[in-house]
Design a protein that fits this description.
This protein is of the alpha/beta class and about 425 residues long. The chain is built from 13 helices and 17 strands. Strands 1, 2, 3, 4, 5, 15, 16 and 17 form an 8-stranded mixed beta sheet that branches. Strands 8-10-11-12-13-14 form a 6-stranded mixed beta sheet.
């Protein structure tokens, strides 16, 4: 039995690899491309990891593998602009400012939380260190492929570097006993001090006439230079309206790009945020608890920001909200006044824009990565389930697969191989 199971697994892997080389045609579904109107009884054609056609009258190559998805809904894979899956960690308690720390050095690409996110239809995520620090390190943008190591899922920039932002925070999270700040004013002062140092570091590099004149390499300053030079956007954890105002003020003062993460009271400053051209990545926490600075959390602020012209995306902050429930945010947003169009964009293309990945993901368009999900029904319905998730033209989640179903409906430990022997191992002991 042990050999049979191994042989079946090898055959499945081989078949999957071959299928990726053939065009894949998904026929008969209602297609929601996000950047255009829904297409009834449409066809999505993908090949070699890219979308090659989408529409109502697509010519299907003779060698294509057809997938009958009549009665289903196909839409882009979901993009999560703020997540902590993969057992990510960042800065430690040695100090409040650590921009040299890289999330990529801590992410476990095989952790079951990544597979649960696949079950929720998430195909791209911004994995970030925590918010207990003013500067907790560099975030990492990932594709939720089935990977062995972080390099199998990390998104790369055109120059080969890792794509990601910089995590910052203010408010109560980074406030504690020295060497951490104990007040909001001191928090802002420490942040300004670091960016002034980064400006001086940059000037020394620019003024150096010879290599010997250059300052000693400083990894923390290099991280902040990436921010000052626009290579990394700051993902700034902020809740209260006064903390949001501070984030806007400091980013303008030093000229760096910022995304307001959480932005719990952003609705109170919607016009200011819109004028600054700053996006908001928001969360709908529909369970009790939390902290005093989130007491004014309300679903209606998504609609307020939309009406003000702010680019709005949703996020999970997983494990705060389970990744498997991410698609619900669109329905909650519409219930509180958002338009259907913007609510779906907030799960997809808007978050792609927030991460600077809109040329690759977030919509079903020719030339983009073949990241999409197949749903049982309307994405706003509470009765709808994610049936399949595809990344780069490969299926990474299938609700009909017993192992995948366990990850979709089980508890937080579902699919965690470290907690129990796998079925294959148990069969091998008989």
């Amino acid at each position: 039995m042990h050999r049979i199971l191994i042989a079946a697994a090898m055959l499945a892997a081989t078949t999957s690899g071959v299928a990726q080389e053939r065009p894949q045609a998904f026929v008969g579904a209602t297609i929601i491309p996000i950047t255009g109107d829904p297409i009834a009884k449409g066809t999505l054609l993908v090949e070699k990891g890219k979308i090659v056609a989408v529409g109502a009258n697509v010519a299907i190559p003779a060698n294509a593998e057809r997938h009958d998805v009549a009665g289903k809904v196909v839409m882009p894979g979901l993009v999560d602009s703020h997540s902590h899956i993969g057992k990510v960690s960042g800065a430690d308690s040695s100090g409040p400012i650590q921009p040299d720390v890289r999330a990529l050095d801590s992410i476990d690409a095989r952790d079951a939380s990544i597979q649960r996110a696949q079950a929720g239809g998430i195909t791209t995520a911004n994995i970030m260190p925590g918010s207990g620090y003013l500067l907790s390190g560099q975030t990492l943008y990932v594709k939720l492929r089935d990977g062995r190591t972080i390099d199998d899922i990390a998104i790369r920039n055109a120059d080969g570097s890792y794509a990601g932002g910089m995590k910052m925070a203010n408010g109560t999270n980074p406030m504690r006993e020295a060497p951490f700040p104990e007040t909001r004013s001191k928090s802002a002062a420490l942040v300004r001090e670091q960016f002034v140092k980064a400006q001086e570091y940059r000037k020394k590099i620019r003024d150096a006439k010879t290599p010997a004149d250059r300052p000693a390499r400083d990894l923390a300053m290099e991280g902040l230079l990436d921010v000052l030079e626009g290579k990394r956007v700051v993902h700034w954890h902020s809740h209260r309206h006064d903390d949001i105002a501070t984030a806007l003020r400091v980013s303008k003062e030093f000229g760096f790009r910022v995304v307001l993460q959480h932005a719990t009271e952003a609705g109170k400053l919607a016009e200011d945020i819109a004028k600054a051209g700053v996006p908001c990545s928001i969360i709908f926490v529909d369970s009790p608890g939390g902290k005093l600075e989130t007491v004014d959390l309300t679903w209606k602020y998504g609609a307020v920001l939309e009406k003000a012209g702010v680019l709005v995306g949703f996020h999970t902050d997983d494990p705060i909200t389970d990744s498997r429930w991410f698609i619900r945010d669109a329905g909650l947003g519409v219930r509180a006044g958002m338009t259907r169009k913007t609510a779906l964009e907030a799960l997809t293309i808007n978050n792609a824009k927030i991460l600077g990945l809109e040329d690759r993901v977030g919509s079903l368009e020719v030339g983009k990565d073949a990241d999409f999900i197949i749903l049982s029904g309307d994405p706003l319905s509470v009765y709808t389930h994610v049936l399949e998730t595809w990344v780069d033209g490969s299926r990474v989640f299938d609700l009909n697969n017993p192992a995948d179903r366990l990850r979709a409906v089980g508890g937080l430990g579902a699919g965690e191989s470290r907690h129990a022997h796998s079925e294959l191992e148990l069969e091998g002991t008989n």
